[in-house]
């Protein structure tokens, strides 16, 4: 059986490029005891992957050259030499960018497919997507009825869910994304009240128009200049949630920080970051709430699926050049 994998061959210097990767093939060895042979079904294209490609050992570590790119995903068990996993089971775990994988069975979680398809555990129920949006909006941001919320990277995976949680909780939601197509998506598919195209609009003027009394909650995944523009428009007792800073991931050695952080003090506000795994003990409740919203139609997770492991490098670059809406997946 031949495994096809997307391998990191050179570390990106600045912007990520497809040329940093190579597609390679290898024959699978005999399955060792305690291991499972998996057919990868969907890979989650996540922003954190970019930070693992640098030589510096950041929050998510640094991956070795000539290895399959780090990626979470869902897979089907083809063969099992591990008690507790059986042929046909759907699992979630750290699969890497490849079509087949053999790893210790204890690394994987069996998925219950009775309510949602397995790939939902990468999207709406995914740790790096739905559970991240839930943690940031509810546990950290304490979104409340009547809040005026701004969400950046709003048309992406985390952002799409964060906006919808804002609507479910009775807030006015302003989504910020790049391009007219993404703004239409935010208004027509996601249910945002307002959308700002950061590539074409005067962001400050639009924020003043849509949030004349200030912003109560900013769910930020972008950082950089955008963070300052919103800090300058905080309402009193506002909350700024630092989910990520994707505008900085291509140059983490030289991050542009907020210069208007004194607004946090002047407006008696808070700015708080989080990592989703900090809230792990609450994942069962989060999954239950999100499943309920999926089932009653108040939440949806639009997906964009790129076919073939050959397209993994292109998909990863897409996170940074604006080529997708909703949850980006690769089906090897
Ligand atoms: N705190 C946590 O535990 C945690 C967990 C998971 C993810 N995150 C963070 O959540 C954020 C979203 O991740 P995701 O996986 O859901 O990705 P995503 O939002 O699906 O894709 C990233 C989006 O970021 C936007 N973007 C890229 N470069 C940008 C720039 N320079 N300026 C403004 N926007 C830019 C792009 O949209 P446009 O076309 O609109 O530019 C792109 O669609 C990331 O910051 C990630 O690090 C945090």
What does this structure look like?
The chain has 332 residues and is of the alpha/beta class. The protein folds into 2 domains: 2-123 and 301-331, Alpha-Beta Complex (Quinone Oxidoreductase, Chain A, domain 1), CATH 3.90.180.10; 130-277, NAD(P)-binding Rossmann-like Domain (Rossmann fold, 3-Layer(aba) Sandwich), CATH 3.40.50.720. It has helices at 48-52, 130-140, 157-168, 180-190, 203-210, 225-231, 262-266, 283-296, 312-321; strands at residues 2-8, 21-27, 35-44, 72-80, 90-94, 100-104, 109-110, 148-151, 172-177, 194-197, 215-220, 234-242, 270-273, 303-307, 327-331. The strands form 3 sheets. Strands 3, 4, 5, 6, 7, 14 and 15 form a 7-stranded mixed sheet that branches. A 6-stranded parallel sheet has the order 10-9-8-11-12-13, with helices on both faces. The mean pLDDT is 97. Bound molecules: NADP nicotinamide-adenine-dinucleotide phosphate. The site of NADP nicotinamide-adenine-dinucleotide phosphate (NAP) has 29 residues, from helix 3 and helix 9.
Q: Looking at this structure, what is the CATH superfamily of the largest domain? A: Medium-chain alcohol dehydrogenases, catalytic domain
Question: What are the segments in which pLDDT stays under 50 over at least 5 consecutive residues?
Answer: none
Count of distinct strands? 15
Shape: globular
What share of the residues lie within helices? 25-40%
**How much of the sequence is in beta strands?**
25-35%
Average pLDDT number: 97
Number of domains: 2
Return Rg in Å. 20 Å
| Structural class assignment | alpha/beta
């Amino acid at each position: 059986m031949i495994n096809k994998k997307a391998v990191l061959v050179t570390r990106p210097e600045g912007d990520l490029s497809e040329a940093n990767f190579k597609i390679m093939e290898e024959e699978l060895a005999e399955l060792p005891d305690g291991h499972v042979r998996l057919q990868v079904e969907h890979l989650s294209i996540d922003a954190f992957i970019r930070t693992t490609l640098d030589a510096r050992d950041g929050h998510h570590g640094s991956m070795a050259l000539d290895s399959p790119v780090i990626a979470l995903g869902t897979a089907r068990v083809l063969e099992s030499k591990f008690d507790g996993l059986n042929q046909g089971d759907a699992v979630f775990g750290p699969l890497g960018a490849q079509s087949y994988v053999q790893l210790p069975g204890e690394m994987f979680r069996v998925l219950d497919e009775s309510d949602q398809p397995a790939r939902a555990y990468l999207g709406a129920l995914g740790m790096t997507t739905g559970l991240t949006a839930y943690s940031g909006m509810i546990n950290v941001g304490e979104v409340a009825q009547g809040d005026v919320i701004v969400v950046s990277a709003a048309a992406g995976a985390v952002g799409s869910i964060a906006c919808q949680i804002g609507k479910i909780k009775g807030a006015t939601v302003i989504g910020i994304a790049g391009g007219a197509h993404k703004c239409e998506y935010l208004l027509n598919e996601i249910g945002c009240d307002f959308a700002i195209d950061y590539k074409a609009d005067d962001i400050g003027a639009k924020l003043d128009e849509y949030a004349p009394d200030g912003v109560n909650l900013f769910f930020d995944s972008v950082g950089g200049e955008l963070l300052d523009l919103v800090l300058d428009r905080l309402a009193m007792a506002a909350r700024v949630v630092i989910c990520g800073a994707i505008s900085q991931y291509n140059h983490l050695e030289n991050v542009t920080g907020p210069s208007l952080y004194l607004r946090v003090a002047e407006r008696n506000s808070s700015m708080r970051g989080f990592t989703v795994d900090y809230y792990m003990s609450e994942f069962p409740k989060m999954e239950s709430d999100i499943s309920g919203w999926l089932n009653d139609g108040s939440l949806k997770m639009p997906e964009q699926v790129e076919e073939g492991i050959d397209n993994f490098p292109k998909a990863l670059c897409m996170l940074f050049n604006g080529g997708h809406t909703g949850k980006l997946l690769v089906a090897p």
